[in-house]
Amino acid sequence: MNKCPYCQNLIEEHWLYCRACNKPLITNLKDALDRSIKFPYDKPEIYHLEVEEQSDVFNDVVIEDKEIDEKIKEIDQALESKEIAGAPIPGSLLVEKSSLYYKKRDLPKALKNLELAIKNFEEENDLINLAICHNEIGIIHEDNGFFDQAIYHFNRSLEILKDINDIHKIIKVLNNLGNIYFLINDLEQSYHFYQKAFKLSKQENLEFEEIKSSSNLVEVLYLLKDFNRIKKILARNSEFFKENEDIYGIIQTEIKYGKLYFIMGEDYDESYQHLNIALELINKLSENISLYIKAKLEWECYLYLGKIYRVRDNSTKAEDYFIRSLESVRIFEIRDNIKEGEILENIAELYLFKGESEKSIEYYELSGEIYYKFGDNVKNAENKFKRGKIYLEFEENITKAMNYFEEALEIYEDLEYSKESATILHKLGDIYVNEGMVETAVSYFERAQDYYQKIQDDYNTKLLNEKIRSLSN
Questions:
Q1: What is the per-residue pLDDT across 137-148, written as a single tens digit (0 to 9) for each?
Q2: What is the pLDDT of residue 13?
Q3: DSSP 8-state secondary structure symbol assigned to residue 87
Q4: CA within 20 to 30 Å of 353's CA: 39, 68, 128, 270, which one?
Q5: For residues 157 and 134, what is the distance between their CA atoms, to the nearest angstrom?
Q6: What's the pLDDT score for residue 49?
Q7: Distance CA 232, CA 228 (A)
Q8: Hey, is 24 helix, strand or coil?
Q9: What is the DSSP string of 149-177?
Q10: Residue 266: is it exposed, middle or buried by C-beta count within 10 angstroms (0-12/13-18/19+)?
C-alpha cells in the first residue's frame, strides 16, 4: 500500500482522497478523468439554461473558431432554406447560433440572435424558451457590465419559470440574480437570492443544486464573516464532490478553503496549502481542459497566493503571482473585467509597501477606472480615498489629496455611508487646521460630528467637541 503524501497514513491505490485527512490524491486523477468527468465551459457561478429543442446549445465543449464558423454557416443555410420556403423560423436555431457567437465571445451577435429568437417564441407563446432567452440575455448584459439590464432579464426569466413551475431552472436563475447583486455589492439582495436557491434546492431534495447554491452563498458569507457556516458548507461540499468523483468541484472547494483561511487571517500556511493543492489538481488536468477553463480556475489561486506572499514580506513573489492572476483573467475575458480591479488594487498596495508611491498611484488609477466603468461606487470611493492618502502622506501634494478626498466624500454621502463620510470629513478638517483655515476646519468637523452622532460613535463625537472648542477659543 502507498502512503498519503499529506498525513502519511496508508492509502489504497484506487482512492481519490485520503480517508484519514480528506486531502485529494492527485496521483489518481487520470483514472477519474477516464470516467468521463465533465468540466463546464463557462463561469462556474453562472447558469445557462438549455433550450428544449436543442439540449446542447450551451454545452461544455470548447471548439475552435473554424469549427464554430462552419456550424454558423450550416445554421445560416438552414435559416435561408426556411425563409425561401416561407416556413416559420425555428427560434431554437437562432439560440444555437447565439450560443456559437457567445463561444467566440462575439457578444453583440450573440445578443442580436437571442433578441430575434425572443420574437419567435413570443409569437408561438413558447414560455419555457422565452424564459431561457431572457436568462441568456441577462448573462450577456452581465458580461458587458450592464447590470440593470441583466437584472431585468433575469427577473423576467424568473417570472415565467414560476408560472410554469420549472423548479430546476428557477434555482439556476435565482443563483444568477445572487451573482449579479454580489457584483454590484448589494449583499442583502445577493444573500437573499442565494439563500432562496439553497432553501428551494433543499426543499425539493435536489442535492446537486443545493451544493452549487451553497457554494455561491459562501462568497457572500466571506464578506459577512460568517466563518463557522462557511466551514460547515465547505466540509459538506468537499465530501459530496469526492464521493461523486467531481474533480472540478474538489478544485473549487480547495480554492474556497484557501480564501477562507486567508480572510480569517489566522493560518496563512493552511491557506497556502489549499491553494497549492488546487493548482496541483488544475495542472494535472491541463491536458483535459481548455486554456479558458484553466485560467478561470487559476486566477483566484494566484491572487490569494500573491496576498500571502505580501503578508510574508516577499514582494517579488507577491508581484509575480498578482501578474499571473491578471494574465489569467485576461485569457478568459475579452474586455475589462471587474476582477481586474481587485488584482490591480493588490498590485497598487504592493508597490506602496515597497515605497514606490508613484507606481502605486498608477495602479490605483487603473483599478479605479475599472470600478467606475462597472458602476462599483463603493470600491471607486475607497480607491479615491486611498489615492488621497498617498498624495497626502507620501507625495506631500495636499491639493491632489484634498481633491480625491472630496470626490470620495461625494460618493459616500450619495450612498449614505455615514462612517466613511465622517472619517473623510474629519481628515479634511485636520488638513484645513494645518493650513490655518480655522473656520473651514470647524465646518468640516461639525459635519463629521453629525455623522458620528448618527452612528453613535461617542469617542469621535467627544474628540471633535474638544477640537471645535479649542478652535473657537
A1: 999 998 887 889
A2: 57
A3: P
A4: 270
A5: 5
A6: 60
A7: 6
A8: strand
A9: HHHHHHHHHHHHHHHHT-HHHHHHHHHHH
A10: exposed
Residue found under cell 489518481: 28
For 59-68, 150-159, 416-425, which range has the lowest pLDDT when averaged over its residues? 59-68
Residue 109: partners with Cβ closer than 8 Å, 6 or more residues away: 98, 101
> What is the grid cell recorded at 333?
475575458
In terms of Cβ atoms closer than 10 Å to its own Cβ (0-12, 13-18, 19+), residue 351 is buried
Match 439590464 to its residue by C-alpha cell.
149
Report whether 202 contacts 217 (CB < 8 A): no
User: Are 448 and 413 a contacting pair, CB within 8 Å?
Assistant: no
Looking at this protein, which amino acid is placed at residue 299? W
Which region, left, alpha or beta, applies to residue 222 given φ > 0 means left and ψ of -120 to 50 means alpha? alpha
Per-residue CA distances from 223 to 144, 186, 278, 311 (Å): 25, 11, 22, 20
Q: How far is CA 1 from the centre of its chain?
A: 42
Domain covering 42-165 in this structure, CATH number: 1.25.40.10
CA-nearest of 322, 328, 313, 319 to 343 is: 322
Whole-number pLDDT of residue 250: 92
Query: In this predicted model, what pLDDT tens digit does every residue of 271-309 receive, in sequence order?
Result: 999 999 999 999 988 888 778 889 989 999 999 999 999
- Domain residue extents for the chain: 42-165
Kindly tell me if the per-residue pLDDT of 25 is higher than 80.
Answer: no
Q: Which cell goes with 32?
A: 477519474
Cell triple for residue 280?
496541483
Instruction: Measure the CA dihedral 129/131/132/137, to 10°.
Output: 130
What is the reported pLDDT for 336? 58
Q: Is the pLDDT of residue 420 over 70?
A: yes
- Rounded CA-CA distance 218/221 in Å is 5
* pTM, full prediction: 0.74
- C-alpha distance across the termini of the chain, in Å: 84
The radius of gyration computed from the CA coordinates of the chain, to the nearest angstrom, equals 26
Confidence of residue 46 (pLDDT cuts 50, 70, 90): low
Q: How far apart are CA 2 and CA 26, in angstroms?
A: 13
In the predicted model, is pLDDT for residue 331 greater than 50?
A: yes
| Amino acid symbol at 235 | A
Mean pLDDT confidence for 77-97: 84
Q: 13-39 burial by CB neighbour count: b if 16+ within 10 A, else e?
A: eeebbbeeeebbbbebbeebbeeebeb
